[in-house]
Amino acid sequence: MKSTFRMAVLAAATAVAVPGFAQQPNPMDAVPEKMPFDIPYGPPVSLERGEAAIAAAVAEAKKRDWKMNVTVVDSGGNLVAFQRMDGAQIASIKISQHKATASAEFRRETKAFEAGIQGGLNYLITLDGVIGSRGGILLMDNGKLVGAIGCSGGTGSQDEVTCKAGAAAVNK
């Protein structure tokens, strides 16, 4: 008798709870008016400008006594230039490359992925090439994407500060 009563209560609770859950709006169903991150592509960043970005990033890192790996890629995520500072963490070589590539390919700072994942947009971790860590910054020329810079070796905020210095040397 008790078992039958428990099952009836469970069935009633499920019947009430399921329709209530289904009525909740899903924020992912919102349809924006404009395409997010719709940044036009420009010509690929040159080696000269890529090296200038790296030099500025390395100068910022040296000023703060940080050891960084710095990568510059073109708008398609292809390697243009790379520098590993003496003593920079070996694992951060690939991380700096990943940050630069993800930033260029997805046309946004990698900080956007970090914020999205922390904000509950868990689907982001299923996308190939995403890295949920700040330190990937776009390189722009007159409003057009020409490449990206990725820095790794410190904390996310240190990586971001270093990259911003590099990007500032190139962005117009």
Task: Give the structure's gist in a few sentences.
By secondary structure, the chain is an alpha+beta fold.
Describe this structure in words.
The mean pLDDT is 90. This protein has a 4-stranded antiparallel sheet with strand order 2-1-4-3. The termini are far apart. Helix 2 (47-63) crosses helix 5. It has helices at 2-22, 47-63, 91-106, 111-118, 156-168, and strands at 69-74, 79-84, 136-141, 144-152. It is of the alpha+beta class and 172 residues long. The chain is built from 5 helices and 4 strands. The chain has one domain: Beta-Lactamase, CATH 3.30.450.
CATH topology: Beta-Lactamase
What helical percentage do the residues reach? 40-55%
What is the CA-based Rg, rounded?
22 Å
Count of domains: 1
**Oligomer, anyone?**
single chain
- Which second-level CATH architecture applies? 2-Layer Sandwich
Q: What's the end-to-end separation, in Å? A: 77 Å
Form type: globular
Estimate the mean pLDDT confidence: 90
Number of strands: 4
Under CATH at level 1, the class stands as Alpha Beta
CATH H level, superfamily name:
Haem-degrading domain
Helix count, per DSSP?
5
Proportion of strand residues: 15-25%
Give the biggest sheet.
Answer: 4 strands, antiparallel
Strand order of the largest sheet: 2-1-4-3
Low-pLDDT runs: none
Structural class computed from helices and strand pairing: alpha+beta
H/E element order = HHEEHHEEH
Q: Characteristics of this structure?
A:
Beta-Lactamase, 172 residues, alpha+beta, single chain
Please write out the topology.
Blueprint: H1 2-22, H2 47-63, E1 69-74, E2 79-84, H3 91-106, H4 111-118, E3 136-141, E4 144-152, H5 156-168
Helix pairs in contact: 2-5
